[in-house]
Amino acid sequence: MTDRRSVSIPADLSGERADKIVAVLAGVSRQTARQMIESEANVSVDGRPVAADQRVDGGVLDFPILPAEAGLVPEKVPFTVVFADDDLVVVDKPAGVVVHPGAGQSGGTLAAGLLARFPEIEGVGQPGRWGLIHRLDKETSGLLLVARNRASYERLVADLAARRIKRQYLALVHGEMAMPTGSIDAPIGRDPTNPTRQRIASDGRPARTHYRLVGTAAGLSLLELTLETGRTHQIRVHLAAIDHPVVGDRTYSRKPDPFSIRRQFLHARKLELLHPVTGQGLAFEAPLPPVLAGILQRIGILQT
Question: Which of these is catalytic: 19, 92, 137, 249?
């Protein structure tokens, strides 16, 4: 009898096609995922069979366990452990480190570094991204949450979907914002002309970003941002859509980088959550990397 696995579909995959969800959660290619669904493998969500092109809004995915096409190899990768206990880890990821393997990036990932440092996370969550509760873009620095066992993973994934985990970011953007606070509510979908980009799309997935203006100087604005949803590239796409792209964003900004920092000025500064076992409230903060803090000092914007 074929072994099977059941896993809750995380919030960042809710609304995606079934074949993509299976590919990510089973650690196989998109083609293999389609073959699994279309064969008699009996892939289901909440006990109901799904079609490969069917969009799935959450639930519990059940699928046969196949050998992963590419196993995650532990590697020494730079990151800072902010907090660790038997159930979870909070790390501060530097810019330039990819979170998990993907197209064009198989080695040197944070996921590989986590597996080397915390080998017990293998088998927790999604293949290739063991233990990871959420993600950050390669050129974004800051706090990431990792589960060390399956029970903690399931609880933290559920808390993220229920918006009980709070994430706050700092971004320096082009232009001086007129309003001290605001929200950007615009659906986001993949750019059909470039699969590595996202765009505002009427048929995309709902996305909402809230911001507070911290200060302005030199034609730039420092923003404190919180996410109500967690779409791919959400902050960057939303800010570019209102003509305030993130400084240093080489994908969504056409404006020159005045500081040549070779990364985007986007940092995951704060993380608040309930401990998955004790229920205790936890709060963490990662200071701005020196290169970003130096820019703010240079232009005369103070953090709050």
Answer: 137
